[in-house]
Specification:
This protein is an alpha/beta fold and 236 residues long. The chain has seven helices and nine strands, in the order βαβαββαβαββααβαβ. The radius of gyration is 17 Å and the shape is globular. Bound molecules: uridine-5'-diphosphate.
Length: 236
């Protein structure tokens, strides 16, 4: 039995790169989709927010010198590309996914309409939320918190390169230890970076727990959904 009926999974764009330095790695996206399939097979309803950092990020690299809002719109469009790739891979693997965009690009994807998203989830379809929040100066972490709250997800699952929240940067400090659980307030008091500040505040206000876990650890997503001790749970 899954521990959650409905989850919001946040994947960073970089998670799709695998060992590559840019773009979408085929083997990696297929592996990720199969992990999502395992949890839908458990009966868990899945909404996904995917980032765009593997293609374009408004605050970095190729955007230097650009008008910030324009760069951010490019970043949002990058998330649409990733969402299409993800949904198409899901289709190839025999799953039913719907992409809903926060920016209208109606020839390509349907717009985000909350009741429709809820209907798809009830029908067992995977909903991929594209174009972040639809606003510049935000991130897809914030989109994950926002959509998670809107669709009544019981938890935001943040898949990252590290397998949880640590007391210090585990790459720099060998004494760093992983928290199994931590309260929002303690994470703030200890200045621990879980999600960006806006996303974090939104989850805290809405009492929406966050679980941080490793995207590179096979089976981790399933263990999280089964309620096993995996990664770090940030709770109220
Ligand atoms: N972005 C935005 N508003 C949003 C979500 C994303 O402007 O609501 C832009 C922003 O430029 C961001 C880029 O899209 O850098 C890609 O998203 P993000 O950096 O969150 O992707 P990730 O790091 O998860 O791959």
């Amino acid at each position: 039995m899954p521990a959650y009926k409905r989850i919001l999974l946040k994947l960073s764009g970089e998670a799709l790169m695998g060992e590559d330095s840019y773009g979408i790695n085929r083997g990696t996206i297929v592996r990720m989709v199969r992990e999502v399939q395992e949890i839908t097979n458990l009966g868990c309803q899945v909404a996904v927010v995917i980032g765009g950092g593997n293609i374009f990020r408004g605050v970095a690299g190729g955007s230097v010198g650009m008008d910030r809002a324009t760069a951010d719109y490019m970043g949002m469009l990058a998330t649409v590309m990733n969402s299409l790739a993800l949904a198409d891979t899901m289709r190839q693997e025999g799953m039913t996914a719907r992409v809903m965009s926060a920016i209208s690009i109606e020839q390509v994807v349907e717009p985000y309409v909350r009741p429709k998203a809820l209907q798809y989830l009830e029908e067992g379809k995977i909903v991929v939320f594209a174009a972040g929040t639809g606003n510049p100066f935000f991130t897809t972490d914030t989109a994950a918190a926002l959509r998670g709250a809107e669709v009544g997800a019981e938890v935001v699952l943040k898949a990252t390169k590290v397998d949880g929240v640590y007391s210090a940067d585990p790459n720099k400090d060998p004494t760093a230890t992983r928290y199994s659980t931590i309260a929002f307030d303690e994470a703030i008091a200890r200045n621990l970076q879980v999600m960006d500040a806006t996303a974090f505040a939104l989850c805290r206000d809405q009492k929406l727990p966050i679980r941080v876990f490793s995207i590179n650890k096979p089976g981790a997503l399933k263990r999280v959904v089964l309620g096993e001790d995996e990664g770090t749970l940030v709770h109220v």
